[in-house]
Amino acid sequence: MNASLKELLLSPLETEQLEGLRQITRDNFYVNLPMIMEIIRGKKGMPADEAMRIASSVIQETLRSMDNAIEPGTRDVLVGLLLKFEPEILERLRADFLSTDLKKRFDSLFLLRSMNSVRTASDILQQALNDSNKLIRAAAVKTLGTMARKKEPAIIVTYLKDADSRVRANAVEALEETENKNSVSVLLRIKNDTNNRVRANVVKALWSLGYHDVEKDLKEMVTSPSELMRASAAWVIGEIGIESQPLAQLLGRLDRDTSPLVSTNYYLARKKIADPSTRQKGKKRGSAGKGFKAAVVKTSQVGIEEKASKYFRILKLRGRLNAYSMIPVKLRIQEMLALGSQNIAFDFEGVDDIDATFMQFLKNLNKKIRGMSGKFMVFNTQKEVMDILSMNNVDGFVLIFSADEKVDHLL
Q1: What is the CATH architecture assignment of 300-402?
Q2: Helical spans, DSSP H, in 116-226
């Protein structure tokens, strides 16, 4: 009879302890942490060293994960354990950021955000905020906002003028995160930014900081000829979540919008207003009714084309991959699995953006397919999307190939 994981970890035999430690994952780490700590406290050769290595690895993965909401108290405990296991980790973060490996550089920024070490942060962020890579600058601005809290946000303000819209949008989010109401006057000066995401973030930040005179700005967005601006207007009304008559009327103007993207955001905004737990800040998701789900599927902006190769069923995706476009993709995957397809590949040639929800979906799908003894991979990934995936450590879980890498022999 095979021993349980608990029995292996509690075993007096080193070989069994090591076997148990090899079975530790993020999913079972916390429930087994007391037994892992006992092995570490025992300080007996290889099991103790392996226990510290595994614990350190899982904690780092948890802390730098963008899709993992951690309570402040839990975060502090994890950081304390990590510093105990790896006293030199702050120096390693500094070295990793200076690496030519883009993934290492992103990982160092995300982990730094959790470590909250102002001394190390000042060294790394000074370089990151002026980096030539716009994704590095965007991540650095977000990290700065997390660490600044209610302190003077002047350094963040500089990046509201960055040439890249992603950096500007992240700078607005960072200002909101500081909860410093002195930021309102700064935000008012940039509320007419030409980028839809920046403008939506400004309205959301203003509302969050107590400035609610945003009806005129939302009206301009709702009536804009740009579908992206109208879609962002629906999104931010949903995030604000207020059921005031003026904002309800503005949202109502988008009821019959012919843009699939706008229609999707309109339905989701209605859902958020009806169920506050589905808003971004709460990180929770309410269950959608059948009518709502059908509407999202019908109006989703993702393009899906299915084809077969020698070894794989391939889904060629186009557009933005996010929480909304994920629904029709999941439905198509369910059909493919039900018909016996075990090897599935995504062609990302036409994908121009991807969010945290869809990235978590990729990880979960990879785990599910491999649990069925199947294979899963992503190929034809454009550089910017590849950078985002690396930045969020998705390529540490999923087999991903860039557009420059040849995969014909694998398909």
Answers
A1: 2-Layer Sandwich (3.30)
A2: 118-128, 134-148, 154-157, 165-178, 184-189, 196-208, 215-222
DSSP character string of 60-110: HHHHH-TT----HHHHHHHHHHHHHH-TTHHHHHHHHHTSS-HHHHHHHHH
CB atoms within 10 A of CB 249: 12
Number of other residues whose CB lies within 10 A of the CB of residue 166: 20
Measured distance CA(401)–CA(411) in Å, rounded: 12
pLDDT digits (tens, 9 = 90+) for 204-230: 999 999 999 999 999 999 999 998 899
> Could you give the residue range(s) of every CATH 3.30.750.24 domain in the chain?
300-402
pLDDT per position as a tens digit, 134-181? 778 777 777 776 666 545 567 788 788 888 888 888 889 888 888 888
Neighbour-count burial for 284-302, b at 16+ CB within 10 Å, e otherwise: eeeebeeebeebbeebbbb
Name which of 397, 355, 391, 357 is nearest 378 in CA terms: 397
> Are the beta carbons of 88 and 56 closer than 8 angstroms?
no
> pTM for the full model?
0.60
CA angle 326, 278, 320 (to 5 degrees): 30
Q: Quick one: the chain helix, strand, coil %, rounded to 5?
A: 65, 10, 25
For residue 380, the cross-strand partners are none
- Listed in sequence order, the residues at least 6 apart from 102 whose beta carbon sits closer than 8 Å to its beta carbon are 133, 387, 390, 391
